[in-house]
Amino acid sequence: MKVRIAVGLGAAAVDADTFTAVVSALGPLGFDSLWISDVLTGPGPDPLVALAVAAQLDPSLKLGTTLLLPGRNQLRLAKALASLDALTRGRLLLTFVPGLGHGPKRDAIGVPPRERSAVIEHALPRLRRWWAGEPVDGITLGVRPVQDPLEMWLGGLAVPSLHRCGRLADGWLGSFCSPAQAAAAKTTIDDAAAAADRRVDPEHFGVSIGYAHQQPDDRQLAVIAARNRTADLRVLVPVGYAAVRDLLEEFIAVGMSKFVLRPPPLGPPNDPAAWHDELAGLADAVAGLQT
């Protein structure tokens, strides 16, 4: 099993100098890829724009995004993602998410939460056909991705989301879950895939993990608890590099092999030296886990 460890900026606000420093540090420190989250109401950059810039800063680093699917024009999205994969020579990694169903993020997406599952069900087969060069509604995409196929992963812990992943997706990237929940999710996805006469690669299961260096305060705990009310909060957000490594080892033991580690907010946010030190410490902590 090939274990790969990436760094995710989440929705962190970084200026051009800091972003350049982060991208330049990842490869030499041994990280597999850079991930940018799609948070419309957050302070971070648009993921596709940021990844295009990162591609020029490091011509070998893989480029990942957890991208909102509801609310986007499907043809424009198909062309943008195909273009990014083509112009980066096949370095794009892609996980689609439905977006949160509460707060300002809910309204910003423009699609009610109850309708988002149907949007994803409708969009994924169409994207596959466009990227394969097939016409959809009489339209053939003029740009093709280098990767064939350009894989689409999904997230989510709800049973319908896991069934959808097994039926339609190429992999699963969970978040805010325990190792036991991840193992159960993998079983549900595998069963759904088998029922649909398909198979999800056993190496295509992973977890995005945000970590901290201090215990979360009450407000932060409430936000975390809203994402998963059944798991131990100490598992959902490990505190300290040693806890991150221990948790990764637990996830690896239950079949997870792809990880996106999200550093805590750094203050001030636009401090290239602070980011480099953070990433260097993280790299030391997880050294030897990638295979």
Domain tally: 1
CATH class: Alpha Beta
CATH topology: TIM Barrel
Radius of gyration using CA atoms only: 18 Å
Shape: globular
On the 0-100 scale, what is the average pLDDT?
93
* Structural class by SSE content: alpha/beta
Instruction: Report the helical percentage.
Output: 40-55%
CATH architecture title: Alpha-Beta Barrel
CA(first)-CA(last) distance? 7 Å
Question: Unreliable segments (pLDDT under 50, ≥5 consecutive)?
Answer: none
Report the portion of residues in β strands.
5-15%
Tell me the series of helices and strands, N- to C-terminal. Answer: EHEHEHEHHEHEHEHHHEH
Summarize the structure.
This protein is α/β, with parallel strands linked by helices. It is built from 11 helices and 8 strands. The N and C termini lie close together (7 Å).
Structural commentary:
It is a single chain. The protein is α/β, with parallel strands linked by helices and 291 residues long. The chain has a single domain (4-286), classed as Luciferase-like domain (TIM Barrel, Alpha-Beta Barrel), CATH 3.20.20. The chain contains 11 helices and 8 strands. Strands 1-2-3-4-5-6-7-8 form an 8-stranded parallel beta barrel, surrounded by 6 helices. Strand 5, helix 6 and strand 6 form a beta-alpha-beta unit. Helix 1 (16-29) runs parallel beside helix 11, helix 6 crosses helix 7 and helix 10 (241-253) crosses helix 11. The longest helix is centred in the middle third of the chain and has 19 residues, at 113-131. 37% of the residues are buried. The mean pLDDT is 93.
